[in-house]
Amino acid sequence: MKNIFNQMHSVEILNRINNLSTNSQPQWGKMNVAQMLAHCSLFQDVATGNASTKRSWLGIIIGKFVKPIFYNDKPLAHNMSTIPTILIVNEKDFETEKENLKQKIIILQNNGPEQCTTQTHPFFGRLTSEQWGKGLYKHLDHHLKQFGV
Predict the structure, then answer these.
(1) SS3 state of residue 44
(2) For the chain, how many structural domains are there in total?
(3) Inside any domain, residue 115
(4) Does any domain span residue 1?
């Protein structure tokens, strides 16, 4: 499984982001490309502790039992629900969101996995830095595939 903390894997993600354009259309889902980039950027903030979200009651009950879906080798399902606080519905500027996300990935890579060890996922709960790294890669990969890159 690929991991965002592996430099080769983060460079691959950055290159795929660079292949997006304002004309990129989703193959599923409701977000446009700028909203997707903003959503992914906010999720990076959740992982690093720069944004906080409360655990959902459903996550508290079943999160620890299903958390391998976040970091296993199986692709995420299309149109699965998202964390309400990082659901983007307002319009965003594509170039701004693209650069924000790229910078957050670079900072995440430079700071290393230790920055994620104390963060709790709002649904899955406590994750190791390795689980965060795999899950962050998987989440980005999911959304980049959503837009055909």
Answers:
(1) helix
(2) 1
(3) yes
(4) no
